[in-house]
Amino acid sequence: MMNFILRRSSSCLPPPNRTFAVAAYFTSLLHPHSSPNSAAAAVAVVSPCLAERRREFHFKSGPLDFKASLPRLAESAVDDYIYDDNNNKDEGLEISKLGISNDIVSALAARGIARLFPIQKAVLEPAMQGRDMIGRARTGTGKTLAFGIPILDRIIQYTAKHGLGKYPLCLVMAPTRELAKQVEKEFSESAPNLETICVYGGTPISQQMRALDRGVDIAVGTPGRIIDLMKRGALNLSEVQFVVLDEADQMLSVGFAEDVEIILAKLPQNRQSMMFSATMPSWIRSLTNKFLKNPVTVDLVGDSDQKLADGISLYSIASDHYAKASIIGPLITEHAKGGKCIVFTQTKRDADRLAYAMARNYKCEALHGDISQSQRERTLAGFRDGSFNILVATDVAARGLDVPNVDLIIHYELPNTSETFVHRTGRTGRAGKKGSAIIIYTNDQARNVKTIERDVGCRFTELPRMTVEGGTGDMMGDMGGRSGGMGYGRSGGMGGYRNSGSGRSGGYSSSYSGEYGGASSGRPGFNANRGGNFGGSGSSRSGGFGEFGKSDRSSSFGDFGSGRTGRFGDIGGNKSSQSGSFFGSFGNKHE
Ligand SMILES: Nc1ncnc2c1ncn2[C@@H]1O[C@H](COP(=O)(O)OP(=O)(O)OP(=O)(O)O)[C@@H](O)[C@H]1O
User: Fold this and answer.
1) How far is Cα 180 from Cα 380, in angstroms, rounded to an integer?
2) What digits encode the pLDDT tens for the residues 283-312?
3) How many angstroms is it from 296 CA to the middle of ligand 1?
4) Would the N or C end of the chain have less CB density within 10 A of its end CB?
5) How would you class 196 by CB atoms within 10 Å of its CB: exposed for 0-12, middle for 13-18, buried for 19 or more?
6) Where are the alpha helices (DSSP H) in 385-484?
7) pTM (predicted TM-score)
8) 328 lines ligand 1 (CB under 6 A)
9) Is the distance from the beta carbon of residue 147 to the nearest atom of ligand 1 less than 6 Å?
10) Rounded to the nearest 10 degrees, how much is the dihedral formed by the CA atoms of 84, 86, 92, 94?
């Protein structure tokens, strides 16, 4: 495997005319069987820009026989990408001068994108060369277009020469529906003449089957629905030339990897495979050899640098479990200053409860995997367009989501892993903007905060502790804090959260309504229990959060470390020990 680490660079790429020459050269390698003349003729007949799409002309993908001369060329690419630390004022690379299809150039220009971001610059040449690739760059730095532009360009060239096919030439897989939709949108907006489809669960499959039947150039989707469509014979992957695993470390983690492998096994051997993420934990290296051929690693993060995007200010604040919910309002008021804020919880139920309580004083909605797909989409659209400005979400929103101008991230509960911290935090400070993130931790979790600092190469500014005024009518007072927190280090065996005593019977509500039954401390019902909207009507049983632990695994605190694994490092059957979780098991795979 040839690796080269790229730091944020300036004079990375060769002059535009050379890039153009390289692109043109590889284009000719890609399609050696088409002479310039026949290509021109083909353009005249079927170019998507010039003619209506003619799906009935279906051409089998030609072999991608460009690998022979790659080592030499890749080496020259390495030279080009070597970073100059003293010269890191990146002016970007003018997209219009790269020889990229006019369709793409004008579509990007219409979106205000005229210059490549560094990762896009770094990826362009090896991607045009057809190299398999591992790409890492910080959150919000444009990885989608880094793989998108070269793929789109090559598909445009290919269809210009070979005509439009029925089956997708490119498959992109993403871990969540929202991210899949976003990637598909980015593709379709960047090459409006190509046919794209997004396939994901929670929506009628028949519609997707019909669209596939009409013919597509690019399919983006989540693994479950992709397999479903394959099994029904509606999605034929035999012509895929490009496959991308977005959020690759999550896609190759326990819980996803099996599905991904099934899909990859159905793809032609002769293809270009790329994996992208802001985090590439070391375990991923051993796996990549399984899926990639002689991959080049384009890494704009590096081992020693801090892993977060620039421009994100980090704060930490210590709080007791029961007080967390009470301090969140003041934190948002102070740090989000009326802008957009995402509050991350660990469980769906917590997201619901917190959102419900906060909605009394803020415009706020919940997002998690138990919400219907149509509602999820409405919620995200509302958050994007500013109909409300506080999103309380599980880690379903941690990765990839690109909502412009999120000012503040609050880790209401600590993330499972340092990688998740990076992704959650990366929902702010995107595309060069500024943002803030606050991590709320209990005394027991102080070590975890240090672990994050060490892993991520960052420093939190500690905020002064806030005092909780019980029964003051503070908007979150009802929650009485929450959740039993994470119980890190207390429950024995790391992940055996069941035994920590938290969140199972605890009815502690510091104030009046008892809607949430309070939570955390495991003390028996100390709950005003009048309202009881959630958590068992605040009844005499246990009140509020006392219900945790008896229902479905993924939304239940009581099920943390549910005994399935009982191992340190497992995240409820998702990433498992691969990702070095520093909490116990959460059983939160798809949130
Ligand atoms: N060259 C560019 N010029 C201006 N804006 C860009 C450019 N490239 C990408 N963007 C915008 O930057 C934002 C972040 O891009 P993107 O979502 O691809 O980031 P990412 O690196 O994939 O982040 P994450 O790791 O969180 O998934 C998007 O809104 C995208 O449209």
Assistant:
1) 13
2) 887 888 889 999 999 999 976 567 899 899
3) 22
4) N
5) buried
6) 418-425, 446-456
7) 0.72
8) no
9) no
10) -70
